[in-house]
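A protein record pairs a chain with a discrete description of its three-dimensional fold. The following entry can be read in just this way.
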Amino acid sequence: MNDAVSVLGSDQPSTVFSGNILISECGWDKIFSELEVLLRQLGFRYFTYSSVPRDLASKDSLFSVSKRSYGVDTQGSLPEHIVSRYYREVATLDPLWSVLPTSAEVLVTDVRAGSSTPIVESFWEQYNVASRAYIPVGKHADKPWFNYFGLYHGKSSAEFTELYKDISGSLLPLLERCHKLLALDGSKETNPYVRHAVFSATCTNILRMTAEGMSVKMIADHLGLTEEGVTYHITRAKKVLNARNKTQLIARLYQSGIL
């Protein structure tokens, strides 16, 4: 694992959080507002809720770190101008992105201990952030992308590690609960395939009908397209999702949240 990133355990007892954030009727704004208040009480300066494709670090990825500068992948309390500037200027130099896409563990980066690049360190120091924690949430083992919370703290890595030991027992379940509530209200909101329009509306329609068992001819007649046009969209989808056949394609469409 890269020296710039460490993995933290989560088996320590901790403080119990309280608040209306656990109410299932909460919308996105309410959840983010309540979560920000709770995290600020613990000294966190900002937080983000985002998604990351597992192949983000690959040269052949459909996505790229630079595309995230538009802000569509990141929500939370981290100001938009910081998000945009980070992805535009320093993200490609941040060792985090070679680790996070394939990690299922909590990751913490220390930006003041010389284990990151000077540019990354300098960037976050401008905003009084000394430690960043990235926490994967949800059942994501079989998905090509997953959601995570990014937490930004002013404490050094060593100090933050001690704090994390005290709060992780309540913090992690709270973030999982927030994720579930957010997913109930907008599962497409952070889906990178949807956000980045990997498949057009027409293509998605074709894929949905394919999953429902309709033949190429039936789909073509229903949408007023040629059979060649329908086949093109299905073939492209197979290539994009690296599916060998139609059965595997349908499975991956559901795994990726496209259908």
In short: The beta strands are 5-8, 44-53, 74-76, 106-110, 131-137, 145-153. DSSP finds nine helices and six strands in the chain. The longest strand covers residues 44-53. The chain has two domains: 5-192, 199-255.
